[in-house]
Amino acid sequence: MKKICMVLVALAMALTASAQFEEGKFYTNASLDGLGVSYNGASGLKFGVSAQAGYFIVDNWMVLAKAGFSTQTKESSGNTVLSLGAGARYYIIQNGLYLGLNAQYKHAHNYNDLVPEIEIGYAFFVNKHVTIEPALYYDQSFKDHGNFSTIGARVGMGFYF
């Protein structure tokens, strides 16, 4: 009986989520980046916040814009980094699993960098419009791979309408 209930709950979640990834829907998100678990050679540990806004151009495909601010533990790359970027997401399956590909321009006191990013995440639906979205990401630095490329985790709250 427990297995049947679990299958029904999973099916209900998948059906609820699928309606949100349709062409013409809008998306906003606020995220905490780093969470003390991102790392690169120049900054050590970092903590940041970011905001995203997106639009589904076709079913399962979203284009988005992103802005962010982060602070770092080491002085070598500057204490604060501002970033602006754009990207796309593809929702692999209709239950919220997605792949993202983004490009960001990052600015700090003593460096500027163009950074492509790949991420994988999941949109857990709290209700019909609100999600909690954990994701893992990798930023590839063009300036200095060893010091500025970053791997990390983020958790965001998304709104689909």
Q: What keywords describe this structure?
A:
single chain; 161 residues; mainly beta; Porin; 2 helices; 13% helix; 60% strand; elongated
Characterization of this structure:
By secondary structure, the protein is mainly β. The protein has one domain: Beta Barrel (Porin), CATH 2.40.160. It has helices at 2-18, 145-148, and strands spanning 26-33, 39-40, 44-58, 61-72, 80-91, 97-108, 111-122, 124-125, 130-139, 150-160. It has an 8-stranded antiparallel beta barrel with strand order 1-3-4-5-6-7-9-10. The longest helix is centred in the first third of the chain and has 17 residues, at 2-18. It is elongated, with a radius of gyration of 17 Å. The N and C termini lie far apart (35 Å).
